[in-house]
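Researcher: Next entry in the queue.
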Amino acid sequence: MSLTPNKRQTTKIASQKQALRDTLWEGLEEAKLWTYNNKGGWLNIPRSFPIILRILDLLSKGKPLSATYLDLWCRTFNDSFVIANKPREMAFASGFSGERAERTWMARIRLLEGLGFIDVKSGPSGPISYILILNPYLVIKEHQSKGMVDPSSWHALMEKMIEIRATDLDPPPPANAVTPEASAAPLPMTAAQLFGVAPPPPPPPPMAEPGSLFTASVSPVSVPSPTSTEGT
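Model: Structure for this entry, 232 residues:
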């Protein structure tokens, strides 16, 4: 599951699907479709979400959690954080109505918290004011390790994760893994470094000859004799 999505492949698949769709629905008006590119109100969710919701309902044992969990996701801004300041509205969107709607919704929230899918903080709206949605893959993996997830649902989730190239459950890289910086070609070693020999000391400066002030020889300078002016 360590493969990364290939943008070129994704674009090719999208083009093939659109060609097939246009063949099946000839003359289709794009305005009748709800497309991501030119319509607002979208949210990012994993393609494995239906299987995640199924596992949630199986873990809750007769108290379905999928609608409550889906409503929480739809109230985020792709930040895993929910401000639960509208409990009645949230209860209604989760499928609960009547006098016990909010109480039933709160019980579902506590059940999601008990299963580890969310974390709850109190605040101005009461005991359930802020909700943090945790990574469902990691939570489901923990339940699976305890034998609480049926094999069929777990295998379906693994297959879907491989299909969509989700890497959430991939093992972390080893501590001694080579990083791109460390894998750069090292500088060549000197002979002293290679054989463990200390480099030779620099040569001493030249010594002056005894009795001389300079080490370099000085060429004699010829001085012209004065011109005689007698007899002129």
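Model: The helical segments are 7-24, 49-59, 66-74, 87-93, 101-115, 136-145, 151-164, 191-195.
Researcher: Noted, moving on.
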